[in-house]
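note to self — DONT lose this again. spent like an hour looking for the file last time. sequence + predicted structure for the chain T wanted, 220 res
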Amino acid sequence: MVWTSDFSTQYPYDPDTAVRHFEKVDQPLFNLTREIGEYRLELRSDMTPFEALLRSIVYQQLSGYAAKAILGRVLELYGNEFPQPKQLITTDFDRLRACGLSQSKIRAVWDLAEKEDAGSLPTPGNVQCMTDSELIDVFTTVRGIGPWTVQMLLIFNLGRSDVLPDNDLGVRRGFKVAFNLNDMPSPEELKQHGERWKPYRSVASWYLWRAADPDFRSKN
C-alpha cells in the first residue's frame, strides 16, 4: 500500500515509487512506511541556498522557538526580508549581536555573505547542475557550515532524493526503532545498510526521523 499525498506535486521525485522500492529491498523499512503513512516532507524551495544557509547558521544549537525569534529580529533589520550579501557584510556587529546572534555566528554569517558576494558560491542556477558531493564540498568552505548542514539543504531546500545523513542522531534513533535493535547503529553501519535504499535515501531518512519522534515511539 502507498499513499498519494497533496505534498507529492512539489517533489522532483515520486515518494510512492520510493515506498514500492523499499517493499522490494527492505521489508522492515517498508513496514515502517505503512505504520507512519503518507510522506509529508515540507520543502522550503522558496529559499535560495544563501538564504537557507543563513537560516541554518542562526538555528544551530538552539531550540526552534529561540532560533525563530532571533531570525525574525535579524530579518527586521532588512524590512522583514532576507538581506542581500552586501547588506549583511556592512551591518554593524553590535546590531547583529543585539538580535541574539553569538560572536561565532556573526562571523559565520559574514563569511557566508562575503563568499556569496565574491561569487565563490554557486548561483541558484548552477546549484541545479551540481552533484550532492560537489555541493557539500563547496558549501562547507563557509565558516560554521559542516556536511550535515549541507545535507539538510539538499533534502529540505533542493529536494534531492538520495541523501542519507548517516551522522544524524534522529535518523540513527529511527533506524534503531524500525529495526528493533538493542543498540544505536554507528554512522558506518547505517551508511552500509542504506545502500539498498538508493536512489531514495532522503525518503528513507524522513521516515526514520518520524520513527524517532517520541509520539511515534510511545505507540510502539
